[in-house]
Design a protein that fits this description.
The complex is a heterodimer. By secondary structure, chain A is α/β, with parallel strands linked by helices. Chain A contains eight helices and ten strands. In chain A, strand 7, helix 7 and strand 8 form a beta-alpha-beta unit. Chain B starts with a helix and ends with a helix. Classes of the chains: A alpha/beta, B mainly alpha.
């Protein structure tokens, strides 16, 4: 049996991940989600759809519930009412191991950075490729090298997260989120502590796919600097549990 | 009276629920092996080798020291007492049954629990508190594969290997204990080899697997069960280590029952 090519390997496990959802569905949709502790008013529901190839930012205060949206999108948390759909699949209802497989279509940057402290930045970037894909070791190394260069991590790649500065940690976390070239990226507070220029640079890298096309990006933030706001397709403010459209 | 019965029932139900959780956890860890990806296998192997280095290689000194002292004390005293009765031939039974079959595996497992069980529980609890477990799940990585499986395999290999080291050192040191009472090397060797059977070897291997699994599973389970925050980490370590020690003693007793059957 001849060895499979990288594209064949990726196609095989993507086919598994594509078992759920619909091909024509939006990458991400929040439907009638209750973001408040007391689900007491049917008018205050959060509805938002992230179209393919667009960058959407939800902005809100600490207690607005905006911080829960990323968890809902990944199926890490369940809303009190309403649902999150990713590529048409009700992600919160997938069985655990199917959910793990499905999440490989989504890049995720959690609040902080979520980097594993006992691994170097490089090994953190390699983690999804090693354990959540069926790539060969050489292919993993090639992809990691490409990401390390793209995100300008070469000089700090061998450092553990605690020894790297905040911007480098953020770059590594973003690179890790893009390791499997996902169709959708969910970012939680991705620009906190970064300069406007660094935030612009990272958002530009995150929103472009390997083939040059644009990927769907959904970010939750408490504040958005004007330079980054200009790069965004839609900004919605989370107010009193609902989404209010703002000018990008 | 009803309240007492209810309290006992609640406590029993809680313990049963923990046992059920542990059984699911153990099954999950074993099933994870089948889902390892190609590149993941290499990384797991690397983590496994590291785990064996920390768990087995770095514990060899302590195991050797304790095995030598324990065997020397037990054998020298026993030979002296049996010599008075003219029953020094029974020394083989003492070495094989008491030291090799029972005390060796038990002490080895306890050494590994005190060194590595605590480390595993603390590491898992820290991973949970720092959000690293959630990050793994969000990337589509099964935490069993990345966190539990290499530690469990590492603990099994390490405990089994350390038991062999313990037994070898105990046999050698036992000779020096026996020699103090005038026993010759040839006689000592004959007595030991006559008493030692294939069953003892299989029991040692089986104990290595069971104790090694316990050393990794209980601390991992209690470490990953942490929810509240960093203040829960020491409690998780204590729960994990105490549960492992109890499990090791209970399974040791079960081995005696099985071996007698």
């Amino acid at each position: 049996m001849s060895p499979r090519t990288s594209q064949e390997i990726r196609a095989a496990w993507m086919a598994q991940a594509l078992k759920w959802g619909r091909p024509d569905a939006a990458p991400l949709a929040f439907i009638a989600i209750d973001l408040r502790d007391r689900p007491d008013h049917p008018d205050h529901r959060f509805d938002l759809t992230v179209a393919p190839g667009t960058t959407v930012v939800a902005i809100g205060d600490e207690d607005s519930g905006v911080g829960d949206l990323g968890g809902f999108a990944l199926g890490l948390r369940q809303p009190v009412s309403g649902r999150a759909e990713v590529f048409g699949a009700r992600i919160g209802q997938l069985p655990y191991y199917d959910l793990l497989l499905f999440r490989r279509r989504i890049g995720y940057h959690p609040v902080g950075d979520g980097l594993l402290q006992n691994l170097s930045l490089r090994d953190n970037v390699a983690l999804p490729l090693r354990f959540a894909s069926d790539h060969r070791q050489a292919e993993v190394d090639d992809r990691v090298n490409q990401l390390v260069d793209d995100f300008r991590l070469r000089a700090v790649a061998t450092l553990r997260p605690a020894a790297a500065n905040e911007e480098d940690r953020r770059r590594a976390a973003m690179a890790r989120a893009l390791a499997l070239d996902p169709d959708l990226v969910v970012l939680e507070a991705p620009f906190d502590g970064l300069t406007g220029r660094a935030a612009q640079d990272l958002l530009d890298k995150v929103s472009r796919r390997d083939d040059g096309s644009r990927r769907a990006v959904f970010a939750t933030v408490q504040d958005l600097v004007p330079s980054v706001r200009r790069m965004v397709d839609r900004v919605v403010k989370v107010a009193d549990g609902s989404a209010v459209e703002e000018k990008p | 009276m009803t309240a007492v019965v209810a309290a006992i029932g609640r406590s029993g139900a809680r313990r049963l629920s923990v046992l059920g959780g542990l059984a699911r956890f153990a099954l999950g860890a074993f099933r994870a092996a089948a889902r390892l990806t190609r590149a993941g296998r290499w990384v797991t192997l690397r983590v496994l080798i590291n785990q064996i280095r920390f768990t087995a290689l770095q514990a060899i000194g302590l195991v050797t020291f304790l095995a030598a002292i324990l065997s020397f004390l037990v054998i020298s005293q026993t030979v002296r007492q049996l010599g008075r009765l003219g029953a020094t031939d029974l020394i083989g039974t003492v070495i094989v049954v008491a030291v090799i079959r029972e005390l060796g595996p038990l002490l080895t497992a306890l050494i590994v629990v005190s060194r590595s069980g605590t480390a595993i529980a603390a590491e898992m609890a820290t991973n949970r508190v720092m959000g690293e477990v959630t990050a793994l799940e969000a990337m589509g990585i099964d935490p069993y594969i990345y966190l539990v499986l290499p530690r469990m395999l590492g603990a099994i290999v390490s405990v089994a290997a350390l038991m062999i080291v313990f037994d070898g050192v105990a046999l050698a040191s036992g000779y020096f204990g026996a020699a103090l009472s005038g026993m010759h090397f040839q006689r000592y060797t004959n007595i030991v080899l006559t008493t030692l059977s294939a069953k003892d070897v299989w029991l040692t291997v089986a104990k290595g697997v069971v104790f090694g699994s316990a050393v990794a599973l209980f601390p991992s389970y209690h470490g990953l069960a942490v929810k509240a925050g960093p203040t829960e980490i020491p409690q998780a370590v204590t729960r994990g280590v105490v549960a492992t020690i109890v499990a090791i003693f209970i399974s040791s007793a079960l081995f005696v029952v099985v071996a007698a059957g």
